[in-house]
Inverse folding.
């Protein structure tokens, strides 16, 4: 079997593009409609996607508070995915959750529960939740510094993994005759005492079906890359062109190798926002139609929201350039990325938000079925991507286009599965099930005897 | 329409009785089987129960760590209920969550999400999570003092309610033509600054379908009663006899009245563990059969676990009396209740755990269909109960018995519904939808103009 493209689907009910909710075929209440999310999950499963992915924010900040922002309110991702899991059978669910504002015990527990009830289809996208607006919902005035957030994240992830391992896979006996339900020698305290957390354990949920839910990361800063290389199994990333994606791909794979991990077990999946038509012209008209729906104040608010409130453009002329940067402790990687796009294209503020509105810094592909498939194939074959996180700009139309038009073309080229390979998210992604260190050390002792 | 009995179903997959998992017809892995919980939910809905209720614990402590404890691991309740919601249409879901170890923003968000995706069927059982074993999973050595936990709980509940109210019901416009998605004048910061929390808001989930998920409480201590009278709409409680239940009922209703609330909008639902037979003899043999399955060490561990680890009976003879109490900061009400039972009956340790194993301090009814219905009717007609939280001692058998035998008898007597009255949990319980204070004050201003 040759290597195949892996695919995530980023499907917030309100759509990816800032004006997606205004699209004639989009439900205006998609962001808060459970029925619509159910339909999206079922379409993604029909398209044989590996996973449904949702970002998350712990405040109304994302995209600004202006009246046109359809992303201002929605579902908490783990709760939503739990509800979608029994309505699907193979699709994975990658939920975003914060290491800065959640406790390891609580987080380990809800992801272990999601993995258990979905029969091994859970993934955790680890984020550190930038922005003072979020901090103010959690007893703080300002967010912790960037480096401190990442230091805490590393300790958090290790603690969560230790909690998932606190039960060995064979700890449960459940012998009705003897009355022994579990083997106390196969359940272990965690006894973590670190700089940020102190957690005794064990967890009160069995070891997840997958061993660990799949650990996902998306940081692009130096701190983010370091965390990803040390802990992540899937990395979402945003690049505007092949060479930038290749630089990132090679850098991460080298870091992973240096960390003593197998680079094949860390999948790099850049985001792609596809506008697909039967012809290039049809695709281009879909692209323009959506951009025409952006309300200018919403566009400006989007730029600020995307950078965690560190890029306030109020008062600057829309048809002038981006003002000079101030150093902040906000979302460093996002602000740098946005400035790079503006510089490369010589964009005004208006042109910039139109560009960003589509894909928020991810790669926008506008073209015929063959052209879109060509782009994906080029990135996949040239060390830029192990797969892609597909961000349909509006819903359900752009997802339907991808599933009905692009997926069959990728299959024809032998680049994508024609049926799910496995039962769990991990099996479909081709990632190994983590061994339990407690079980491993018991095996080592027995082997030595 | 005359007043009807309200019914909750307490259905942990492992059963209520400590030896429930050893029952021949119980699945040994019920506690961690999603399919089994789905079956229980569907049976409860067939029985027209108001709600499925689950307790919760933030450590493996409950019931002890001995090898016979089937309750040592299970699902996180909100995650589980989210998955069950789309598989049912009328059944409510009351999940327990902690004010001591969760943040108001996170908690408000997940319950609002559960309410949204279930179309208004969520309830929150407010607990303060006793026990040092739990504290040690959350960066502490010992738990906060009893009074401090309750003080924090009160501030927590108020903050959560304010977050649920941060969006007015009609805040969403979603006008595709103008691009206005919401009315910024109808979304409000919370700006809470208290002793325990500081939360800016607004929440990033719309106001729940029910206004607020139904707020449930179960504290029986003085602090617990005060909190319940101030904030709860449903109160779960444990009583061994009619007069004790009446005392509690009258005390709470009087406190509610003094707090300026309508006593009819606070439902008191004692726990009842029913062993039902076609004859009394059949019921009694079901009772004895289950008690014969208890492993002694598990019985002793149960008593300690129930009191948050404050009743360590290791080394005391099983056929001797309960040793004298030490004052603790643990679960005051639970320890007092357990001692009272031992005193009243003159129980040895063994007799005590056998008694407790069945219902953990709740009322055990063993009898024919008519006898069980008589007991419920007596309590309901004599100011002891507005309804009951039914705790089937083993599953699925004792739930099936109740649904197939007792429910029809209660319906024949006109004491229980024959179809769901409403669409939401609140409507079925006969509780009003809370008004939004922001909308109310706007109405008052308009009326004055």
């Amino acid at each position: 079997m040759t290597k195949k493209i892996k695919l995530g689907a980023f499907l917030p009910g309100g759509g990816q593009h800032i004006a997606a909710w205004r699209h004639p075929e989009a439900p205006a209440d998609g962001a808060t409609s459970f029925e619509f999310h159910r339909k999206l999950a079922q379409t993604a499963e029909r398209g044989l996607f590996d996973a449904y992915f949702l970002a998350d924010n712990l405040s109304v900040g994302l995209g600004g508070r202006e009246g046109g922002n359809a992303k201002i309110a929605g579902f908490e991702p783990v709760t939503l995915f739990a509800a979608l899991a029994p309505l699907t059978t193979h699709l994975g669910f990658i939920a975003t959750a914060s290491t800065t504002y959640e406790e390891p015990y609580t987080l380990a527990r809800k992801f272990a529960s999601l993995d258990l009830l979905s029969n091994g289809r859970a993934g955790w996208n680890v984020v550190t939740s930038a922005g003072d607006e979020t901090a103010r919902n959690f007893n703080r005035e300002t967010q912790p510094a960037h480096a401190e957030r990442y230091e805490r994240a590393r300790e958090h992830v290790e603690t969560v993994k230790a909690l998932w391992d606190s039960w060995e896979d064979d700890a449960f006996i459940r012998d009705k005759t003897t009355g022994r339900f579990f083997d106390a020698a196969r359940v272990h305290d965690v006894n973590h005492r670190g700089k940020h957390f102190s957690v005794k354990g064990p967890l009160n949920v069995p070891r997840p079906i997958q061993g660990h839910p799949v650990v996902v990361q998306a940081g692009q800063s130096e701190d983010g890359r370091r965390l990803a290389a040390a802990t992540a199994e899937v990395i979402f990333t945003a690049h505007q062109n092949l060479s930038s994606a290749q630089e990132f791909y090679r850098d991460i794979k080298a870091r992973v190798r240096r960390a003593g991990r197998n680079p094949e077990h860390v999948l790099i999946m850049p985001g792609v926002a596809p506008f697909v038509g039967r012809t290039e012209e049809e695709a281009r008209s879909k692209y323009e139609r959506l951009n025409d729906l952006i309300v200018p104040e919403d566009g400006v608010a989007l730029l600020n929201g995307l950078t965690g409130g560190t890029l306030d453009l109020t008062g600057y002329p829309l048809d002038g350039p981006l003002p000079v940067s101030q150093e902040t402790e906000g979302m460093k990687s996002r602000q740098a990325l946005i400035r790079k796009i503006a510089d490369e294209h010589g964009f005004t503020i208006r042109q910039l938000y139109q560009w960003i509105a589509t894909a928020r810094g991810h790669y926008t592909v506008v073209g015929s079925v063959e052209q879109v498939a060509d782009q994906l194939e080029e990135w996949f074959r040239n060390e830029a991507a192990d797969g892609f996180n597909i961000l349909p700009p509006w819903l359900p139309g752009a997802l339907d286009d991808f599933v009905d038009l692009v997926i069959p073309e990728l299959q024809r080229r032998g680049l994508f599965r024609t049926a799910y390979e496995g039962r769990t998210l991990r099996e479909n992604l081709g990632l190994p099930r983590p061994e339990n260190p407690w079980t491993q050390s018991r095996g080592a002792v027995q082997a030595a005897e």
In short: Residues 6-291+361-448 of chain A form a domain with the TIM Barrel fold (CATH 3.20.20.30). The first helix of chain A runs from residue 34 to 46.
